[in-house]
Amino acid sequence: MEQGTSMIVMIVLMFALMYFMMIRPENKRKKKAQEMRDSLKKGDVITSIGGIVGKIAHVNKDTIIIETSEDRVRMELTKWAVSSVGVQTGEQPEESKKGEKKAEEAPAEETAEIPETTEAEEK
């Protein structure tokens, strides 16, 4: 009976860990995105999931109308297509930048070890 009980406890712990590591953070992220989409108002600058940047001209129940340029070009988008409020840039988070700096420094060190030839050696 000890083995059966310990196996059940391990399975329950595995499901609890999976819930707290995967399911709960995803639900929080979805809830935050939905709140952001519900709080959209006229005049906000948004970026769509397709990368279109525009200023909100009109808000309906399920859609928004944005102006994308000085020429007053208007587009109608569904609210779920809004990626973020504000202009989204191509910059990566700080964690990714730190990893890239280390990768960039390694080749620079390798090239420094190569001896330079002088004009006298070439002749």
Describe this structure in words.
A hairpin with a 3-residue loop joins strand 2 (53-59) and strand 3. The N and C termini lie far apart (86 Å). This protein has 123 residues and is α+β, with helices and mostly antiparallel strands. Strands 4-3-2-1-5 form a five-stranded antiparallel β-sheet, covered by helices on one side. It has helices spanning 2-38, 94-112, 119-122; strands at 45-48, 53-59, 63-67, 74-78, 82-85.
Describe the structure using short key phrases.
123 residues; 5-stranded antiparallel beta sheet; single chain; 49% helix; alpha+beta; 3 helices
Average pLDDT:
80
3D shape: rod-shaped
Oligomeric description of these chains = single chain
* Amino- and carboxy-terminal Cα gap: 86 Å
Write the layout of secondary structure elements.
Blueprint: H1 2-38, E1 45-48, E2 53-59, E3 63-67, E4 74-78, E5 82-85, H2 94-112, H3 119-122
Antiparallel strand pairs: 1-2, 1-5, 2-3, 3-4
